[in-house]
């Protein structure tokens, strides 16, 4: 009797495991393997949706990305700005003004366009700083046809990010992905409003990660993609194959003005950090040493008679700045900051910017062939001067 019960139990278990394997392989959503995005509240109190890491839910390239587009597209908006600019012409000539006077009212209204991403259901919108810079009026057009006035919450020219606020509720907010989990070769989709033709989706792959020294922003860590990005795409979404935001489209490399397959997006992890500070304080606080760095090349190391070519040489040091007060001098070679190696000036700038002002940072420098350790009290990086509308 016991043997028969055992055989029935064993057969039932075998059949059950077989069915579970088949269902988990062909229809994983039936057993709840695919979980929806979890809500996350940032330190500024903004409720955003955070998706799982791409490695856990990385979709295979099959025949369509319609589901990803359906998930992300409603959160991508069109951003329209207008500003008054002074008409330039003969009246700008001092000799003309001397004989004919200075005529009044020589202004024109200039309109421009871009894209944005709804970051939270209560109306915060991420976009590029250059899309809304010096604008007198900003309007946001939603995917459902509504056009709403927007106000500028804050802008960060050094990362080229800005946050807008529209008075609306229950908006289709984007789900944020983890840009730090991206890999070269991952499929990505760019969503925006190029040339004001209407919302457009283009597909490509991640061509490179961590692009710096492009001369676009002060702080650069771009995702490079070959997904077509054109004028009007700025501020729009770069999403992964699950429809999760991994970047804010920002710039292209082009000699013609059109897409040639080299586009750049700001990583979503950086965008969330900047957005949170702009919403909370209206500005982005970064660490500051008060130094002018230069990459230490092998040739420069030979000229300076340095025993090594690693690190960054300090061309200038503000005497009244944090580094100057700590004893750093021009000609010092910065080797490490808090134990982390300094690879180049761009990396050093990013390392310093992430240090909280008021904290102590341990630095190791090479000076006259000897290594010296110093402690720098981190200052606050001065805010960049925003250009005024003409």
Layout: helices, strands, pairs:
Layout: H1 2-26, E1 38-41, E2 47-50, H2 54-57, H3 66-72, E3 76-86, H4 94-100, E4 107-118, E5 124-127, H5 129-132, E6 137-141, E7 147-156, E8 161-166, E9 175-176, E10 187-192, E11 200-211, E12 222-225, E13 237-240, E14 245-252, E15 263-267, H6 268-281, E16 287-288, E17 291-295, H7 298-303, E18 312-317, H8 322-326, E19 333-337, E20 340-341, H9 345-353, E21 360-367, E22 370-377, E23 379-380
Parallel strand pairs: 2-9
Antiparallel strand pairs: 1-2, 3-4, 3-6, 4-5, 5-8, 6-7, 7-8, 10-11, 10-13, 11-12, 12-15, 13-14, 14-15, 16-23, 17-18, 18-19, 19-20, 19-21, 21-22
What would you say this structure looks like, in words?
The chain is an alpha+beta fold and 390 residues long. It has helices at 2-26, 54-57, 66-72, 94-100, 129-132, 268-281, 298-303, 322-326, 345-353; strands spanning 38-41, 47-50, 76-86, 107-118, 124-127, 137-141, 147-156, 161-166, 175-176, 187-192, 200-211, 222-225, 237-240, 245-252, 263-267, 287-288, 291-295, 312-317, 333-337, 340-341, 360-367, 370-377, 379-380. The strands form 5 sheets. A 6-stranded antiparallel beta barrel has the order 3-4-5-8-7-6.
């Amino acid at each position: 009797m016991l043997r028969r019960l055992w055989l029935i139990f064993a057969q039932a278990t075998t059949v059950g495991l077989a069915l579970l394997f088949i269902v988990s392989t062909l229809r994983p959503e039936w057993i709840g393997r695919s979980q929806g995005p979890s809500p996350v509240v940032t330190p500024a109190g903004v409720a955003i949706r955070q998706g799982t890491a791409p490695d856990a839910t990385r979709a295979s390239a099959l025949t369509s990305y319609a589901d990803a587009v359906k998930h992300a597209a409603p959160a991508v908006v069109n951003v329209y700005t207008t500003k008054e600019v002074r008409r330039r012409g003969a009246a700008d000539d001092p000799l003309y003004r001397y004989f004919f006077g200075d005529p009044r009212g020589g202004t024109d209204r200039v309109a421009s366009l871009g894209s944005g991403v709804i970051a939270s259901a209560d109306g915060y919108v991420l976009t590029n700083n250059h899309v809304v810079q010096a604008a007198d009026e900003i309007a946001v057009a939603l995917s459902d046809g509504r056009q709403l006035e927007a106000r500028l919450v804050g802008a960060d020219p050094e990362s080229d990010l800005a946050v807008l606020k529209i008075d609306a509720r229950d908006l289709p907010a984007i789900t944020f992905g983890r840009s730090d989990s991206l890999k070269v070769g991952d499929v990505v989709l760019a969503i925006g409003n190029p040339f004001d033709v209407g919302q457009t989706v283009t597909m490509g792959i991640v061509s490179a990660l961590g692009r710096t020294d492009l001369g676009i922003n002060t702080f650069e860590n771009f995702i490079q993609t070959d997904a077509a990005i054109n004028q009007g795409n700025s501020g729009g979404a770069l999403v992964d194959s699950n429809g999760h935001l991994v970047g804010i489209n920002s710039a292209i490399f082009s000699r013609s003005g059109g897409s040639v397959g080299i586009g750049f997006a700001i990583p979503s992890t950086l965008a969330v950090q900047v957005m949170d500070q702009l919403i909370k304080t209206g500005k982005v606080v970064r660490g500051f040493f008060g130094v002018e760095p230069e990459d230490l090349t092998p040739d420069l190391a030979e000229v300076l008679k340095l025993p090594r070519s690693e690190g960054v040489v300090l061309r200038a040091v503000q005497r009244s700045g944090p580094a100057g007060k700590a004893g750093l001098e021009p000609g010092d070679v910065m080797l490490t900051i808090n134990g982390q190696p300094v690879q180049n000036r761009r990396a050093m700038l990013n390392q310093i910017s992430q240090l909280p002002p008021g904290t102590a940072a341990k630095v190791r420098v090479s000076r006259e062939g000897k290594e010296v350790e110093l402690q720098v009290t981190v200052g606050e990086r001065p805010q960049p001067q925003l250009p005024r509308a003409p």
